[in-house]
Amino acid sequence: MNLTLHVTGQRKDGYHLLDSLVAFADVGDRVSVMAADKLSLDVTGPMSDGVPADATNLVWRAAELFDQPVAITLSKHLPAASGIGGGSSDAAATLLAMSDLTGERTLPEGAAQLGADVRVCLTRQAARMSGIGEIVEPVGPLPQLHAVLANPRVEVPTPAVFKALASKTNAPMPRKLPKWQGTKQLIDWLAAQRNDLEDPAMQVAPVIVDVLAALTTLPDARLARMSGSGATCFALFASREAANAAAATLAEVHPDWWVVPATLT
Ligand code: C5P
Asked: What residue stretches are annotated with the GHMP kinase N-terminal domain (predicted)?
């Protein structure tokens, strides 16, 4: 997920230049591949509703880049099109599983075209992501962050959010990132950064205003922000216990939202 997301420019082909601090949560989908006679995909799990089990799914397109046909199982635990890189990490996990299975060490041509965020998901480490997503600089282990993730079960189309963005040339993060000494210092630093897609995402999906307001008012919440192009937002907490308690409170008030506590690294 994106702890920060600064939009710093736009390329001639329409893609946007970003400067983002990306972290990984201890919640996610599960992907497995097994050698088979032909390519197939089975989508299961609590968030599988409406997720295509065909060649339009990124995991299918990732597996297709290899010569070996496989039976793929994708267990969805993250909501689709929700701004936390679920589809990209599914594609990255498929590429890694396929390279394990086939013994092919180098990623096939076409892997980069699966999506701008697939590259960072291959590293599975906190990183500064820039360019359109192709420049990935690991930042070393982050001080542990505890979070509540909340999604109002509204899918937000990323292109529409970029289109509604008023200014495409915003300040990047400071060139040199601090060596954060602890959770509090990291959260204070994050608070001075932004997600430039928050305002346009709220225009596309006004319910995001409610999600951020609900997260901000949770007991002990230190910072609330949207991830990616939304609609998933997060609040940060000093301890896992505080995040667990806050998630339970929020889930009770909004039983129709997807609400989970998570630890980010
Ligand atoms: O690369 P991905 O398929 O995830 O991107 C979805 C859409 O988001 C793109 O078609 C583009 O409209 C927008 N996008 C962008 N700049 C980026 C990444 C995505 O404009 N760096």
From this structure: 57-119
**Fold exhibited by the domain 141-264:** Alpha-Beta Plaits (3.30.70)
CATH architecture of 30-118: 2-Layer Sandwich (3.30)
Residue of 239, 238, 246 lying closest to 149 (CA atoms): 246
Q: Whose CA is nearest to atom 3 of ligand 1?
A: 115
Q: What is the pLDDT of residues 197-243, one digit of tens each?
A: 999 999 999 999 999 999 999 999 999 999 999 999 999 999 999 99
* CA 238 to ligand 1 centroid distance, Å: 33
Name the residues annotated as catalytic.
117
